[in-house]
Amino acid sequence: MMQSTLSPFPYLSLAIWCPIFLGILVLVLGRDSRATLVRWAALAASIVSLLVTLPVVQHFDNAAHGMQLVEKAVWVGRFNIFYALGIDGLSLWFVPLTALISVIVVIAAWQVIETRVAQYMGAFLILSGLMIGVFCALDGVLFYMFFESTLIPMFLIIGIWGGANRVYASVKFFLYTFFGSLLMLVALLYLFIVSGFSFDILTWQQLPLPMSSQIPLFLAFLMAFAVKVPMWPVHTWLPDAHVEAPTGGSVVLAAIMLKLGGYGFLRLSLPIAPDASHALAPLMITLSLIAVIYIGLVALVQTDMKKLVAYSSIAHMGFVTLGFFMFNNMAVQGGIAQMISHGVVSAAMFLCIGVLYDRMHTRVIAEYGGVVNRMPKFAAFFVLFSMANCGLPATSGFVGEFMVILGALQFNFWIGMAAATALILGAAYSLWMVKRVIYGEVANEHVAHLSDIGRREFLMLAILAIAVIAIGLYPAPITDAMQVSVGDLLKHVSMTKIH
Predict the structure, then answer these.
(1) What value, to the nearest 5°, has the Cα angle with vertex 478 and ends 184 and 486?
(2) What does the pLDDT read at residue 499?
């Protein structure tokens, strides 16, 4: 079993609880008469929450095996439940990414949200802390608690600040993700019993489980994580949730919440049920390829910009699950790199759509055209992010997709070729949207009266643009951090445990 290194300082606890407590403070500020104060308080809180994640990256040792910065304390001693936290190369970069997205969401909502400002900002800060908790939890109960708790703020965000059909979308989102997770709870309780009454995830990963136990466990985890990713055919809640959610809700949903499902496969499904993972890999690869190709085709026929980007998110996350079940280093690393890149690119795409919606109050592609003539700065950002969305080299979108395709070609030539069609489909729907929205003559008088982005909007898009280009040109900090952990995971998964 890999040796874990205890942390001399609770860096991870700080990263989790700082945004939660600061979010509660923002809630206490309350009334809309203090909206300006609330906005500045939320911005300060989100920046502090980002700053406290930086030591996590700083103190991470790329060459070390096992968990790092581990914290462990008895939580419920009678049931062997521990407050146990730790990170490795699989989870490291999701911690600062989550905090960065929260800063951008606060900036994005500055002028747009005018009612219940404190509740809106507070919900996002609390959600940020809960999502970081999922990436750090090493105890089954703690993992489940954080995993499920993320539903509550997002349910409220969609249900209160969403569009006309928000109640339907928020209830559908909640029911899909909640019922998917109930089977995972049964699986966690089963593991608790067979492990000698332990909720330690690292202990579970060492259990010599027979195939008769591994298959049901894998399927139980699959239900929870497939809905979250979301994989075809349990993806239908996502376009509804995206279309009805406020811009900030869409940003966090696409950038971070979908990644909780992908991360769950890495932390629970693959290491706890390795033989079942190999046995059911053809199923997972098939579902992933359907997501990549079929959902890519569905994205092509969308008339609503948000729906198009929502379907493209499902297709991109299909790349992630495809990479994880090839069982080679290149593909798994590519899947993780794709999750991080998609976190930045999808956030940027939804922010761009939010910028247009704030001005025109429509997301229908046909009602735009010639936006570049009125909004040249915005058009430059929109084209850059669309290029990243379809995997253009030198953008972050290329790194993960290219690695997954290379890994797939090593695994099976035809699967690699099928995966590569996603680059063509991605280019097709992204460029089609850019052509219809950005280029051409000014389509109507509404577009003729558009004004270009201000300093606030420029700042939030510039931060993401720098991230997209930096990851595209120099992905080494991300790939170097995950190298050892991915190698250990694949070594563990390739060793049969059946005696």
Answers:
(1) 50
(2) 38
